[in-house]
Write a structure and sequence with these properties.
Helix content: 25-40%
Largest sheet: 10 strands, mixed
Distance between the termini: 29 Å
Order of helices and strands: EHEHEHEHHHEEEHHEEEEEEEEEEE
Number of helices: 8
Oligomer: single chain
């Protein structure tokens, strides 16, 4: 059985190091491909022809490889090796122990979970428009310029835009909002922060729109598909925390139980 792990060395922290994680995987007999500059991540995943396909990286990298796992109908192993690792957290994995996640290759328990799509692009967590999406795009712009003040400038832009509402059309309804967020399953909300998801198999998209400035309230609705329009022909979005520009209107939908995830026996997934 071909067990294949793709490792993004630019996603992880110092403990374990990419070399240590690779060694731990190879000790289990797992074939490891360490991403190099110029590698096409989906192509690497497709060409692996794996029976079990894994990704060690952040949420954006996980989504790209999960897409291939669905295409090839093979189990997917999540190894949290990014900055936030929201998907791993909601699967019940220990985000601080990527080595422990490798056990799924040996004795993993398969669970099926939902994925979302915006157009044909898969997302595991959420898609956002408005202030947060602008923040993510600005952060990426400065990162590419190696700007040491990128984080501070992004925060200042967000504060300046705090009262700036943008226009959207959501399933034909005109909406003015600072932020529109569409999630794969239901998030616990705390002011403007996203908490954990209790389920990843609910089969529903959740739309969140915040209102107010000092006292934040949320409009929330659920659906299986959704159209979001904008006055602009292209919209800046953040998809699983990654900056992406997409043609409008955006078509979003849920794909229930589309992804086969292998989890270590110690990890739990809420039913």
């Amino acid at each position: 059985m071909q067990r294949f792990l793709i490792l993004n060395p630019r996603s992880g922290s110092d403990s374990p190091t990419p070399d240590e994680l690779r060694a731990a995987a190879e000790e289990r007999g797992i074939t490891v491909h360490v991403l190099q500059d110029g590698d096409d991540l989906p192509q690497v995943a497709r060409e692996a022809k794996a029976d079990v396909l894994g990704m060690a990286g952040g949420d954006g990298s996980l989504a790209a490889v999960a897409e291939v796992a669905i295409e090839q109908d093979v189990p997917f192993v999540v190894v949290p090796f990014g900055t936030r690792n929201h998907f791993a957290r909601d699967l019940g994995l220990d985000r601080d122990d990527p080595v422990a996640a490798l056990a799924a290759f040996d004795e993993g328990v398969e669970r099926r979970v939902d994925v979302g799509r915006v157009g044909e692009r898969l997302f595991l967590n959420n898609v956002s428009l408005g202030i947060y999406a602008r923040l993510v795009h600005r952060r990426e712009h400065h990162r590419r310029r190696r700007d040491a003040l990128a984080r501070l400038r992004a925060i200042l832009v967000t504060l300046k835009d705090r009262r700036r509402l943008q226009r959207f059309t959501i399933d034909g309804e005109h909406v003015r909002a600072r932020l529109v967020l569409v999630a794969n399953n239901d998030y616990a909300l705390d002011l403007l922060s996203l908490g954990e998801r209790e389920r990843l198999d609910e089969g529903l998209l959740h739309l969140y729109i915040p209102h107010g400035f000092r006292r934040i309230t949320w409009d929330e609705r659920t659906c299986t598909h959704l159209e979001i329009g904008s006055p602009l022909p292209r919209a800046r979005t953040a998809i699983d925390g990654e900056p992406v520009e997409l043609d409008t209107p955006l078509e979003l939908r849920i794909e229930p139980l589309a992804l086969r995830v292998l989890l270590p026996r110690e990890a739990t997934v809420s039913e």
